[in-house]
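COURSE: Structural Biology Practicum
ASSIGNMENT: Worksheet 4, Part C
STUDENT ID: 0417
INSTRUCTIONS: Below are two proteins. For each, the amino acid sequence is given first, followed by its structure token string. Answer the questions at the end about the second protein only.

PROTEIN I
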Amino acid sequence: DSHESKRELQMVVDEIDRLSQTTNRLLDYSRPEPQTQAKIDPHRVISRIVCVLDYLAKQYRVETKLKLDQCDIQLESNDAALSEIVFNLVKNAIEAASEAESGFVEILTSYDDETFLFSVCDNGCGITSERESNLFQPFATYKVDGNGLGLYAVNERVRELGGSVSFRRCEPCGTVFEVRLPMARKDDHSGC
């Protein structure tokens, strides 16, 4: 359908513009810009990024599953920063899961009164204990074509948004990354 193709193409163009801005910021960490925050729907951002990365998942034959909380919630956040976080974590998970026989990536969300939780789980080879200590350091990469800035950027953006990021290994294989971000004030969002 022509209308659907145009919509998908526009999404890709918009995401390329956003990623171009992200790249420019990554190249100039010595002069961080103040982040403009606004009320945003994190589920919309996550769905958009997963849709954009669908081509990569198909290329690597990795199944992606979205399990988003059904509540209408908002974060006092920055769209570009949240997009960068989601993009890097989901892209890394897809690439890791591509090494599995039946690769999958699961993206889940939940929340409580004060915190939004975003998790990305994959069944890739996992993170070795040797790699754990410098995982969020700039230029720390174990990929042949990696630059080591993705997880560093995730950590920086999450901190800028007042949140935290952590990871854990899964048995027998795989990794889960969890991002916790503060919710908008109770009177600033409508929950379930």
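PROTEIN II
(use this one for the questions)
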Amino acid sequence: MAALKTIHRNVPYLKQQLSALLGNTSSSVKIVCLVVLIGYFISYHEPAVRFLTVTPGYVFPPGFRIWTIFTHCFIEFHFWEVCVDVVTLGLCGKLIEPLWGKMEMLTFFTLINTSVAFFGIFFYLAIYMATFNTDVLFEVHLHGLSGYIAAVSVAVKQMMPDHVVIKTPLGKMTNRNVPLCVSLLSIILYVVGLLEGAYPTMYTTGVVIGWLYLRFYQRHSNGTRGDMADNFTFASFFPTVMQPPIEICSKFVYNLMVGLRICRKPIRKYDVGGPTAITISLPGTDTHDAERRRQIALKALSERLSQQADSAASWPSLEEDSRPKTGVQAEQVSQSTNQVETLTAAVGPPHHRTTGITTEEDYGTTRIITEEDHGTTRINTEEDHGTTRINTEEDHGTTRIITEEDHGTTRITTEEDHGTTRIITEEDIGTTRIIIEEDHGTTRISTEER
């Protein structure tokens, strides 16, 4: 009687807290909470439990209860589980849904629960093949939101990793510690017989699947996928002492998944507000070879520009021509003019004069082609077998530099026109694209690797 009076006395307070928790959440969160509450009452009907929860032996033919993969998450056997589910869903509506949006929240909910059921089925099938114990096929029921709660703890770790949850004499417990601690706690409670075996299975699976989705597959509004932050690696779930060996194993698994095209290589983007000097080392290229080729191209360009400057200095100044000349100067100018006319008659007008230099070196083959026309310089450098092509054009103060390297392929395009510079770097077979644009003092850099 005393317990009932206590509960009755606290009912208004519980209603107030529940309304505050769910008051500003979306209709989808409220509907899921209502369905979970209805599922709790349905769980008292034993035949309904068999048809709505995932039983590994009945999902595939001849039972073929495939719908249970979508309904098992709404069935809870204990009221405290319903309370935990409602609190978790309310926190999702307050914290995660405003950042992700309603559709992404529902996608995350559906994906995690169906994946937990799917992998849970194969986990118990593997146990059966190892032990031939039929109880793991027909007596185990996967139900509830344990896997989803685990995935939510991973999402909270991603958003607020250093937020302190509990202060203990042994130290502070932050959000980054919650997924591992709850997984270990569920396993310990199962070992001592206080928890069903389905709970640690679903929770651990939820942690792994939630991390995989948030790490590699979640699509963001800026067009990127996943979160490749260093503080969100799989090793970051474990204590610092255990991270080095776990990181080695996780990198091996990651490279294997990339090779199987299950995961993609990371996509990194940079956006800076002003001009800056940035050095980027692209994977798959030799830094020393790239520097050597760059020096060759710059040296050839410098020589041609200096020759062009000397040629321009040899022509008389317009200011000198406009000043009055003495008799001796006039005679010298007349003689010079006659010489120029003679030279022009022999080789044609100066603006049609083209200078071409071709150098070829096979095996590591380098070709340099230089052309000068109307004060325009073009330098083409080609190196095969790790092939680099550099095209430089200068026309009326406009410089265009095009660098292409195949087989680990890098393409760099630089254009300068009226103070505007654009640099485009692309690397295929990897695939990285770096785009740098400077326009009126604004620089944008974006890197993509597929």
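ANSWER KEY EXCERPT:
Q1: The chain has two domains: 2-232, 269-306+354-450.
Q2: Residues 378 and 393 are 5 Å apart (CA to CA).
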